[in-house]
């Protein structure tokens, strides 16, 4: 049992409130997932830089002088914003690969949470309210975002086991459920060049969608394919640079509810995650149908 929340803003005037709205939704889902929590925020693409959100188990050691060290090693300007155990590195698009290689060599203990033009992912072990406070999630702004509260069932409670999982540029996924064919899919995806950080089945789902989109599918098409290729029980909420998608497996035993107004589209594992959203009383509210893909794009 896990909790999922998502918010896709149509009204730009709400963008300064995205973090606070998502944080409230996330904390409401605490009893569905008290082990760990995470959130992906999509900001605005205002420059030609790549963002790398990174995490360290020893930030005092790993982040010390990292900005200067990476700049020198990759021979390019790197800027860094530290948030607790995470930091966001910004580098020009053409030098992003060099910086990632230098990071792996210089600080092998650091993990990359996400990479892309606008995505930032923050996740840690602990109660959702504590995770939200550590990273000042309520102060973040953006156009859309997704969050997850985890109750571990098949793998350890670790930072890397928390959701969202990101396996492609500006892409991420949160999952409630369990996949039965993730081991065979992992082997196939590895042969196709996809790298994995954990043994979590949800990371396989994220990588599956990434692989489909790498081969030309859009988000909607990739989600449609997942209904044929993924076995098990699942509700997915997926983010891309421009989009927000939802799909449930054909049995749809995992709870889900959606709401839409002229200002936003919202998702929650339960309706109570949505009750404080503006205008929710006038929203169209429905339960997503089994084996049906829903997605929106800016």
Q: Could you please say which CATH topology of the largest domain applies here?
A: Glutamine Phosphoribosylpyrophosphate, subunit 1, domain 1
CATH superfamily of the largest domain: Aminohydrolase, N-terminal nucleophile (Ntn) domain
Shape: globular
Distance between the termini: 31 Å
Q: What this model shows, in words?
A:
- With 298 residues, this protein is α+β, with helices and mostly antiparallel strands.
- The chain has two domains: 3-45 and 126-297, 4-Layer Sandwich (Glutamine Phosphoribosylpyrophosphate, subunit 1, domain 1); 47-116, Alpha-Beta Plaits.
- The chain contains eight helices and 16 strands.
- It has a seven-stranded antiparallel β-sheet with strand order 7-2-8-1-14-13-15, with helices on one face. The chain has a five-stranded antiparallel β-sheet with strand order 9-10-11-12-16. The chain has a four-stranded antiparallel β-sheet with strand order 4-5-3-6, with helices on one face.
- Helix 3 (66-74) packs across helix 4, helix 6 (182-191) packs across helix 7 and helix 7 crosses helix 8.
- The model has no long low-confidence stretch (mean pLDDT 95).
């Amino acid at each position: 049992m896990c909790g999922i929340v998502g918010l896709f803003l149509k009204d730009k005037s709400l963008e300064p409130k995205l973090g606070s709205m998502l944080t409230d939704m996330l904390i409401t889902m605490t009893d569905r997932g008290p082990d760990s929590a995470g959130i992906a925020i999509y900001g605005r693409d205002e420059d030609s830089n790549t963002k790398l959100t990174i995490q360290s188990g020893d930030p005092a050691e790993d982040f010390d002088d990292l900005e200067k060290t990476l700049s020198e090693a990759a021979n390019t300007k790197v800027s860094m914003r530290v948030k607790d155990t995470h930091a966001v590195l910004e580098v020009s698009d053409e030098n992003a690969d060099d910086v990632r290689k230098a990071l792996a060599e210089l600080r092998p203990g650091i993990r990359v949470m996400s990479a892309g033009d606008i995505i930032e992912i923050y996740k840690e072990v602990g109660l959702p309210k504590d995770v939200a406070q550590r990273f000042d999630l309520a102060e973040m702004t953006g156009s859309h975002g997704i969050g997850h509260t985890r109750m571990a069932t098949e793998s350890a409670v670790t930072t890397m086991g928390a959701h969202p999982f990101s396996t492609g540029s500006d892409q991420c996924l949160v999952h409630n459920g369990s996949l039965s064919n993730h081991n065979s899919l992992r082997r196939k995806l590895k042969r196709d060049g996809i790298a994995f950080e954990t043994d979590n089945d949800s990371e396989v789902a994220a990588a599956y969608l990434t692989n489909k989109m790498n081969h030309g599918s859009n988000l909607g098409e990739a989600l449609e394919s997942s209904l044929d290729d993924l076995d098990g029980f699942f509700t997915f909420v997926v983010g891309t640079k421009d989009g927000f998608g939802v799909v449930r497996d054909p049995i749809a035993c995992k709870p889900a509810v959606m709401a839409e107004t002229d200002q936003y589209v919202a998702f929650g594992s339960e309706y109570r995650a949505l009750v404080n959203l503006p205008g929710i009383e006038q929203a169209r509210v429905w339960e997503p149908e089994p084996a049906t893909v829903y997605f929106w794009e800016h």
